[in-house]
Structure formats: structure tokens, C-alpha cells
Amino acid sequence: MSLGEATKRAAIKPHEQLAAYLAPELEAVNALIRERMSSEHAPRIPEVTAHLIEAGGKRLRPMLTLAAAKACGYMGPYHIHLAATVEFIHTATLLHDDVVDESAQRRGRPTANLLWDNKSSVLVGDYLFARAFQLMTDADNMRVLQILSNASATIAEGEVLQLTAAQDLKTDESVYLQVVRGKTAALFSAATEVGGVLAEADDTVVKALFDYGDALGISFQIVDDLLDYWGSAQTGKNIGDDFRERKLTLPVIKAIAKADETERAFWVKTIEKGKQDEGDLDHAIALLNRHNALEETREVALDWAEKAKAALSVLPAGEVVHMLSDIADYVVARLR
Amino acid sequence: MSLGEATKRAAIKPHEQLAAYLAPELEAVNALIRERMSSEHAPRIPEVTAHLIEAGGKRLRPMLTLAAAKACGYMGPYHIHLAATVEFIHTATLLHDDVVDESAQRRGRPTANLLWDNKSSVLVGDYLFARAFQLMTDADNMRVLQILSNASATIAEGEVLQLTAAQDLKTDESVYLQVVRGKTAALFSAATEVGGVLAEADDTVVKALFDYGDALGISFQIVDDLLDYWGSAQTGKNIGDDFRERKLTLPVIKAIAKADETERAFWVKTIEKGKQDEGDLDHAIALLNRHNALEETREVALDWAEKAKAALSVLPAGEVVHMLSDIADYVVARLR
User: Fold this and answer.
1) Does B8 map to a domain?
2) Which residue among A45, B97, B252, B330 is buried most deeply as judged by most CB within 10 Å?
3) Where in the sequence is the signal peptide annotated (chains A, B) (predicted)?
4) pLDDT tens digits, one per residue of A69-118
């Protein structure tokens, strides 16, 4: 690569770099997504999905599948189908999350609208989920189907676990990890694993790809949960959403573990009972800082990113593997 | 069969007769369902599903799969898995229907409760759906997977179509048929078809099983829609639910097609605009009777039941096929 190219590369972000490298495949994925999300009989379906699928998500998960397949030397056409599958599953869970998380947003919103959205979200999510399974069968690979159906069950299980664990102050770091593994990491690890399986890679390589996706997904979610208390205008995240929705995430779990009597009473009031007053979010952030909970959470996220990179060592070195490693750095780079 | 047995048989209903015939298989299906709906990490899941799955549904759909496989001489173990799959898909759609149809019930219900139910219904439904796909892969038959994933997409498409078509007076009989084929018949026909495919039956037999399930499902749904205006305490159905939820079903479509100016205004007010006053349900039923819409709908249901029975003629005659034929009679027998 020329010096000019290297400089140009340094200026663009790792996920953009990977997207540029995978451009032809990503275009094929997008075309397949558009084709398969259409519905002859129910034009409402693309209406609902279009804004989610078109509106320039980063396509991180499908890129992981494409990159994993390429890293293992796959030359066939079906990594495109599996990448689209992964994006459909992701979009379906987003749609169903809309229903799930509506509670917090409902105040002040017109009810009719809300319900219409709920109906459409549930059913269109189901449609995408079913389409995902149709797409998988195109690859004609039973192990791929098992991996992705297992991942789907794990995702739902993680979300249900979160329902019961979220407002329960007894939720500890191990339960939190289980939730995160389910609701986020399961799709990351399935995305990378199926790339390797499709390419008929060795078991050790497939295992490494799974471990990479698992650690990357965990890191990704912890960063997300951290930014909810630490974010800024730059990260584009609203601070305090999780607090308002009374979600017990890692920073709060760490602060609760070190809380004295008075602090504990504050967490019981705001998270367990949901009685939140003006200034409570600021006080929560002050408590997180007092116990170094944000910094400690950041270290956990960095650890998982390192684990993700370490897992890649099993793979034959090469441009794609290097880019996957950069992706792990990028995920935590949101923390500066 | 002895005369005593024949008399005993005549006294029990066709679906009970089929259940008795399939008793060992149904027990295995129930055991598999209990095993697969459990969740190590999220005990809420069996809590939510138990009342749906345990509470003695008729298990009509799984029985269709078992019977179709047996009618084709299948001797392996996987019709059990596919029957459980079909029941899981059915239960998942019921859970998601709960969310969808909540609007009508919400008045007077505590909101927190409602939301909790919505959350659990969506996520546990997703879990069952994913579990269904895991179960399918056990049968290790790609065609079966295609049929069931296609059916799942068709079900969701039918439900979405119903969302847009339900309150639209332009909805005609062909759109109604499409909705019914999607939301109900697709799972019936997939249930019977996969039984034949698993048994490696001839294409003509597989096609006949599909046609039987398709016609049976259509008949089943039309009867259901008819009973919503024609039911009684005996049928255990509340009269008028569809009217209150402003669902355009076949009886109303038929009455609207023959409506004069004044009647049309009534349907616009009650169904399209949803302004329903005391006595409107009675008036609606009077209009249905004036135009013979209930009787005509009944004839359509009977026709589809006959089509279902006719499709079976391709299959080798035998006890199971005879019982499947009786099931078609039974579905319309709810109309006396």
C-alpha cells in the first residue's frame, strides 16, 4: 500500500475500512435484504422495516459474517445470505425491543399511535424473523441452522432474563454477564461462527471465531451501558435512559456493591421502586464516580476487547483478520 | 371392531378419537414440549407458557402432523419433533396475538399489568419461535425446514395484512381469503405437509396433504368467524368480539356487498370509524340475517370442509385417513 493510501486509511474509522473492503459483498447483502423484506401481500411490511434497514445502520453484524467467511477463505455465495439473515434477526429484535421498552416513553405519547406501533412492531418483527430462517435454509447447511436457531433462543432468553433482573437490586455481575451474553453477544458470536462453518474451517478456527464474536459483543454492550452514564453529545447517546428505565447495568451494579446504608436506600428508591425526582440522575452519576464504578466498568470493557483480539491469534494472519482486530479496538474507542 | 367399540366410538368426538389413536405419540410430544420450553436461565418462560401449553388445548395441529406421517407409513421418531414444533409456532403466534389484540381489552385494565404482559408475551413468544426452529433442525430435513419457515413468514404476512385490511370496508372476499390462508391455514397445511415429507411420500400425496390442511384451516377459521355472530353458550365463544374489535370477517363482508345506502352508513360508522353504540351489535346481526350472510358463510365453510375431505382421496385408504376425514366434518360440526 502506498504512503498516501496508508494516510487515507488512518483517517477513516475501522468499521468504515472494513465496509470499504467488503463493499461488493455488502452491496449484495443490501440487495438481498431489499428483495426479501418486500411482501407481495402486505406492503406495510417494507414501510415499517425500511427506516430501520435503510437508515444506514453500521451493518456491523453482517460485516462480521462476511469477514469471518473471507478470513477462512470462503469462495461461495452463501455468506451473503447468512449476513442478510443476521441483519434480519437483529432488526427483528430491535422491532420487538420497541414494544418492550415502550413503557418508559409512553407518558405524553398518544396511545393510539403507540398501539399501532406495537402491533406493527410485533408482527413485522415476526415476519423478518421468519424471513431470516428462510434465508438460512438457502445455505443448505444444517450446522449453520442450528447455530443461528440456538442464538435466537439465547437472545430471547437473555431478554426475558433482563425483564426479571433489571429492577432487582440482587442482580450481580454474573447475572448481568448472562443477560449481555444473551441479548447482545449471542448474535455477534453466531455471526462470526457461521462464517467459519460455512467456509468449512477447522474446529479450532470456528471456536476462535465464536470466542471473538462473544467477547466483542460483550465489550460492545458494556460500552453501550457505560455511555448511558458517561456519554456526551459526540457519542449521540442520551445520558440517563437506562437510569430512567430502571435498568440495572454494570456501572450501577458496581456502585451498589460498595454502597453504604444511605446510598443503598437511594438505589432502592430510584431503581427498585422507580421513584425518581429532579436531581436523582446527577446524584446517581456522583455515586458512580465516588466508587470509581465508571472507570472499573471501562476496564471490564477493555478487557473483553483484548480477549476478542487475542482469540483471533488462532486465525491465519491477513488483512481481514487485522481489520477484525481493529474493530475490537474501535468498539472501545467510543470510550476515548 | 366390535359393536360395543363402535358404539363407544360414535359417542366420542372425532378429535378425541384421533387423540386416543395417537395417544403414545401425543404423550411423547407433550414430554418434548415440557422439556424444550423450560429455560435454565429464565424461569419466567415456562411460567408464561405453561398456562397456554398445559391448559389442554386440543393439540389439533400437532395431531395433524402425527396423523399425516402415520398415514404415509412413517416409522421414525421425528414426527414427534415436528408436531412439537408446530405447537410451539402456534403458541408463539397466540402470545403475539395477545399483544396485538390488547387494544380492545385495555379499557379498565391496569396499565402496568398490561405492559408487563406485553413484554412477556413478545419475548416469550420469540423464545418459543426460536425453540421451534431448533426442534426442526433435529429432524435433519432441509425441505421440512423450508416448509415451516415459509409457513412462518406467511403467518406473519397474513397477520400484517389483517392489520391493514380489518377496518377497511373495501376488503373483499379475496383479501379475506388471503388473510385466512395466512393467519390460520398456513400452519395447518404446513403441519400436514411436513408429515408427508418426513415419510418420504410421493409428491402427489404430499400435495394432497397440503391441500387437505389448507382447506381444513380455511374452513376452521371461517367457522370461527361465523360463530362470532352465531355462537351460543355451548360453543364457548363470546358473541360480538370481532364486531367490537372492528374486524371485517366474511359474514360482514357479505352483508356489506349487499348493503343499501343506510346500511352502508351503519357499517362505516361501526367498523370503519369504530363508533359503536348500545344495540349496534344486535342491529349488525339483524343485517347479517336480512342478507342471508350467516347462512352463505356457513355454506362456504362447508364447501372448504368438503374440499379437505376430497383431497384425502389420493391417500391410501385406512384408519388414520378416515379419522382425518372425520376431523373435517368435526370442524364444521361446530355449526350444527
Assistant:
1) no
2) B252
3) none
4) 999 999 999 999 999 999 999 999 988 887 754 444 433 343 333 445 67
